[in-house]
Write a structure and sequence with these properties.
Radius of gyration: 21 Å
Oligomer: single chain
Strand order of the largest sheet: 2-1-5-3-4
Number of helices: 9
Order of helices and strands: EEHEEEEEHHHHHHHH
Amino acid sequence: MADEELTIKVQRCDPAVDNQPYWQKYVVKTRPAMTVLDALFEILNHQDGTLSFRYCCRAGVCGSCAMVIGGRIRLACETQVNQFIGKKELLLSPLPHQKIVKDLAVDYEHFFDRIKEVKPYLIGKEPYPEREYIQMPKEREPINEPIDCILCGSCTSSCTVAWTNSDYIGPAALMKAYRFYADTRDIAKDERLDVIESENGVYRCHTIFNCVEVCPKKLNPTETIQKLKIKATKRRLFGRKKKTRSKS
């Protein structure tokens, strides 16, 4: 099949010089198995070296190339351009409601600040084992899904609550909190609930499911948020679990 041309309109903006974003049109000759990220490189290398966008692994693992593609948040490295051939044009824009660094690249600082709030690391029981904490398959089951989150920011950028409340922890951070809360090796469950039980935590979620629709890994942040709500509510009703101390 002969290569076909695709018109791509990119939302561009350099905050240092532009008062507002504008659209710029490019025409790309497509090829079989070409991704949107490939098309962006085609533009960057052969048409406009000033175009800016993020990428890293090019394999749907790092989440760096998340953007709005054809009206929907997707990963550019996983999205094939052939599905847009025959349409008038393909629109590309940065993740919504994020500070723009330049063109399609957004500032992730605020996003990762929210992730840091939930202590996204294992807090194990001391003394630490010499090699590893043993965990059986059944024990790992609850974290099989949330552990696959790649922190691309798609869910948070699609969340209507995050759009209007910059203090909201957000679905990505809440899923990360659940990932460690549900880990049988972790002992900081109360510490994590203290963070997410606030006004800007789990109770701020409106259960709209935007985060589920845009997740490139087919995860369900809304479900994990509801699980955290249940844990937080039970703790309010029945109190914290008493910590047992070893006799000296």
